[in-house]
Design brief:
27% strand, alpha/beta, 4-stranded antiparallel β-sheet
């Protein structure tokens, strides 16, 4: 499903190149639950953002399904992302000028789902994540943990083909974190491919295998 070949990412400082990813080769099959682990600064989040097509400045070859991502422009990649991916960002990336309800509705609007059906799906998500009472609030009126729950709900709401998650339980209580990971497992069992970045051995234990990365290299 996902093939990465000789992926490299660096930042140029005058004549000096600082590499973040070095000759990364990886394959992720449809329906897998994969954890990316490694020390801070190893390149884990960079790799996840690259897979999620949020980063367009890299070298190498990336194939997703029948698409050659390295040959597509930014707009084409964006359309693929909207159609196939959900992303739980470490810094949430909620839209500040939209309410919780409106933030949750956005991914559904990309999928040509009727308004009445969108309303039903959002209502279910609000109930599932215990945030019904927050639906009319804006992100800056929520705690970090509440924002994280909204971010996870938004990523999962349209049943994406691929769910990407960057430290998805970082600001949650242990019980909330476990509940989220159980949701990921259920989603994966229904066929969604899950790729998470985590420092947690417990969270990694929910997956099928671990990709270890260190100083930009897969080890």
């Amino acid at each position: 499903m996902i093939e990465l070949r000789n992926i490299e990412k660096y930042y140029q400082h005058g004549p000096t190149k600082t590499f973040v990813l070095r000759k990364v080769n990886a394959d992720i099959k449809e329906g897998e639950f994969v954890s990316i682990m490694g020390p801070s600064g190893a390149g884990k989040s960079t790799l996840l953002h690259l897979i999620g097509m949020y980063d367009s400045e890299w070298g190498g070859e990336y194939r997703f399904l029948d698409f050659e991502i390295h040959k597509l422009n930014k707009k084409q990649r964006g359309e693929l992302y909207k159609q196939y991916f959900g992303f739980v960002f470490q810094s949430y990336h909620l839209l500040d000028n939209l309410t919780v309800y409106e933030n949750l509705e956005i991914p559904l609007s990309y999928r040509n789902i009727r308004k009445s059906e969108r309303e039903s799906i959002v209502a279910d998500a609000l109930d599932q994540f215990h945030i019904v009472g927050k639906k009319d609030l804006f992100p800056n009126q929520l705690s970090g943990g509440q924002q994280q729950l909204v971010a996870v709900a938004r990523a999962m709401i349209a049943n994406p083909k691929v769910l990407l998650a960057d430290e998805p339980t970082g600001n949650l209580h242990t019980s909330q974190g476990k509940e989220i990971m159980e949701m990921f497992r259920t989603l994966n069992q229904k066929g969604t491919t899950v790729i998470q970045v985590t420092h947690s051995e417990v969270n990694a234990g929910y997956g099928h295998r671990v990709i270890q990365i260190e100083d930009g290299w897969i080890v």
